[in-house]
Amino acid sequence: MGGACGYGDLSSTGYGTRTAALSTALFNDGASCGQCYRIICDYKTDSRWCIKGVSITVTATNFCPPNYALANDNGGWCNPPLQHFDMAQPAWEKIGIYRGGIIPVLYQRVPCKKHGGVRFTINGRDYFELVLITNVAGAGSIKSVSIKGSNTGWMTMSRNWGANWQSNSYLNGQSLSFQVTTTDGVAKIFTNIVPPNWTFGQTFSSSVQF
């Protein structure tokens, strides 16, 4: 459901079924989480299993691990250096005939379009805030994050895993602000997006978007 990016239930977090798990060559240790790709089946290479002329845009939400016990062209589809998308079935069936199994594709990275603003989910415990950042438009993927409590200055967060960023500060009872920079260098500040009475497990939606 949530996969290696940590997005949790993909329907409730707004990603739906237009999603894909990326192979090692594309996943970039989680730095590619949230990126969007337009994918079309390469009809010239495989006219039997491709649906001609139809593209679909998917969001990277998971990691497709390598299987070194199998050959790259016979089961080890996600082995390096292959650039492979393991797509959710409803998305896959937009561009290919399901019985084909594996199809050649052409793809390009595209800006993400999302409804509403960026969302922040605060998990963790005292002295450990684990913040999941979702619904990011534009580049989709995040380069850096800083956090600020109402009683602190700006503090750099570190990527814990996927789209989860961590801070090791005691911020209970403070309103929280974030500065998020996406991988294309665009930075946005989300001022006091989290009120001082927040508790762990809550999600806060902003009106700001990339």
For the sheet with most strands, the description reads: 5 strands, mixed
Please, what is the oligomeric state? Answer: single chain
> Largest beta sheet: what is the strand line-up?
4-1-3-2-5
Structural class given helices, strands, pairing? mainly beta
Low-confidence stretches: none
Helix share, percent: under 10%
In percent terms, what proportion of residues is strand? 35-45%
N-to-C order of helices and strands: EHEEEHEEEEEEEEEE
Gap from first CA to last CA: 25 Å
**Net shape:** elongated
Spatial extent as radius of gyration = 19 Å
Could you give the count of β-strands? 14
In short:
With 210 residues, this protein is mainly β. Helices cover 5% and strands 38% of the residues. The strands form 3 sheets. Strands 4-1-3-2-5 form a 5-stranded mixed sheet.
Describe it.
With 210 residues, the protein is mainly beta. Helix content is 5%, strand content 38%. The strands form 3 sheets. A 5-stranded mixed β-sheet has the order 4-1-3-2-5. The protein is elongated.
Which secondary structure elements does this structure contain, and how are they paired or packed?
Blueprint: E1 19-22, H1 24-27, E2 36-41, E3 55-63, E4 85-87, H2 89-95, E5 105-110, E6 119-125, E7 128-134, E8 142-149, E9 154-156, E10 158-161, E11 164-167, E12 176-182, E13 187-194, E14 203-205
